[in-house]
Amino acid sequence: MARAPLLQLTDISLTFGGDPVFESLSLTVQQGDRVALVGRNGSGKSTLMKVMAGLVEPDRGEVVLNAGSHVGYMEQDPDLTGFATLGDFARAGLPEGEGYRVEMAAEGLKFDPDRPVATASGGERRRAALARLLAQAPELMLLDEPTNHLDIEAIGWLEDHLSQTRAAYVIISHDRAFLRRLTRATLWIDRGEVRRQERGFEGFEDWREAVWAAEDDARHKLDRKIKAEARWAVEGISARRKRNQGRVRALQAMRAERASQIRRQGTAAMALDTGPQSGKRVIEAQGISKAFGERVILKPFDLRVQRGDRVAFVGPNGAGKTTLIRMLTGEIAPDQGEVKLGTNLEIAVFDQARAALDPDQSLWDSLTGDPDMRVSGRADQVMVRGQPKHVVGYLKDFLFDEAQARAPVRSLSGGEKARLLLARLMAKPSNLLVLDEPTNDLDVETLDLLQDILGDYDGTVLLVSHDRDFIDRVADTTVAMEGDGRAVTYAGGWTDYRAQRGEDPVVQPAETVKPASAPKPAGKQQPVKEGLSFTEKHRLEALPAVIERLEAEIAKLSEFLSDPELYRTAPAKFEKATEALTERQAALAEAEEEWLMLEEKATG
């Protein structure tokens, strides 16, 4: 039975006075839809959402909302003007007696409704806007980056809430795990065209690659046809001028079609330059603790970070993750204990508050005005990893066009500000990267590239993030701030951390969940063994979860490679999956051997 349409956009065109953002766009959102809205930064995702919400009027076309239905829109920068507290803003428009809905949402999203608007942070304002939308319970919710400024617990609460709602929703998010769990359809904006697939985000990347492969094939065929017709025109047109003017016009039409094809936007030309090699020991923290008044941030804590480690710090907002990193890098002193920094460290910091960016500066001045990037005597050059480069050329590496170079930073989207900050960060040699929420606002392709860059980086990485998928892809150690000042170190990324705590990480959509592999006989939580060092005990407890994860990945890769057509249709994917399978099989053998060795040592 077909579902009734909630919202219809028909023949929408929008230009903002320049090149078209959308041209002849039509789409439908139906009752019960759970849609991921994806596309590159700057492709028009937020603009399309504002058109759907009725906040931006198209130049041409029609937006029709089903009679009696309501649309709720959560924007990235809500306006709280005229409200005394966050709760006043969130409760505005609710029927009398239904303010409890805001209280429930505030508890799940972790903000204080009594907080004065004047003293509220940007993250608290966004959470209040999200609570307001959820409390109003419209038939269609439009959510623009709802997980930004939420910690992992609050993201989990929001996932549960949205998975149970009967409302339709459209979500823009960089959080793969969030989109995989919640979405059942995908709207993809690509070069002004909006495509729809009736599968959730889980299938997006395969779909995108298939579309692009078909485009490349069609473009190649058109190029060959143009070349053949052009050869005919040169060789034979003089003898058949009158008879073949139609063929000449067809050639001109093909050339016009080829010229009108919009090439895909490339990925940012990002790269990291590892500075002089640091010592093998990067950070040695022994018994460090911190408190602000009666509030204990960190109880005595030990951590050793070696060269090349990737350490993720997770925990609720306000738990002290950034404070701990500032102690580990020597920026602030612990109340007790000692931090020893290794030799020859060159630290680069990505700040989630974007404090390094002056909103009133132009992009040009933001780069040339940085003392670490300035080229003496050249106002149009920046120093990039030891080499001078024209500022516009370097901005183009990060997908900014020449017209944006003199624009103020405040005119950029959240994703563009993140790219500009990465441009500053990556111009400087470093051997210790501190990344505080680097994934906010970045598109999926840029996140993929950043992950690959970090994989090739020879230095050490300290990462604060609430993006579970990104932590899994990058981290080899996770430090969890578990409340009451307790910080605990776990081997592996987010999924490994949850497994070692005996918890089931929710990262897969309901329709694709597969039974987990049977655990190893030792179980996920082994009793502490005698005869082992502290590190060995911890490793022995962690290994069963590591083994279980590797077995699951091997099973998934084996299933993928079992397709007899894979090598013929996608040889690059076949080769990559084969390499990954070999790598995981070797890692599994090593993990099992290590587990046996430690178990034998523990039992004498």
Topology (elements, then pairings):
Blueprint: E1 5-14, E2 22-30, E3 34-39, H1 45-53, E4 60-65, E5 71-74, H2 86-91, H3 100-109, H4 122-136, E6 140-144, H5 152-164, E7 168-172, H6 176-182, E8 185-190, E9 193-197, H7 204-236, H8 245-260, E10 281-292, E11 295-306, E12 310-314, H9 321-328, E13 336-341, E14 347-350, H10 363-368, E15 374-375, E16 378-384, E17 387-390, H11 391-397, H12 414-426, E18 432-436, H13 444-456, E19 460-464, H14 468-474, E20 477-481, E21 487-491, H15 494-500, H16 534-561, H17 566-569, H18 571-603
Helix pairs in contact: 3-4, 7-8, 16-18
GO molecular function, one term: ATP binding
Catalytic activity: ATP + H2O = ADP + phosphate + H(+)
Protein name: ATP-binding protein Uup
- The protein's oligomeric status is single chain
**What structural category do the secondary elements indicate?**
alpha/beta
Rg estimate, integer Å: 27 Å
Assign the CATH class of the domain at 5-206. Answer: Alpha Beta
Largest sheet: 6 strands, mixed
Which residues form runs of ≥5 with pLDDT under 50?
505-529
Output the strand order for the largest sheet: 5-6-7-3-8-9
Determine the fraction of residues in helical runs and give it as a percent range. Answer: 25-40%
Query: What's the tally of helices?
Result: 18
- General shape: globular
As a percent range, the share of strand residues is 15-25%
CATH architecture of the domain at 5-206: 3-Layer(aba) Sandwich
**Could you please say which CATH topology of the domain at 5-206 applies here?**
Rossmann fold
Going by CATH, what is the homologous superfamily of the domain at 5-206?
P-loop containing nucleotide triphosphate hydrolases
Number of strand elements: 21
Could you give the distance between the termini? 66 Å
Q: What's the mean pLDDT score?
A: 82
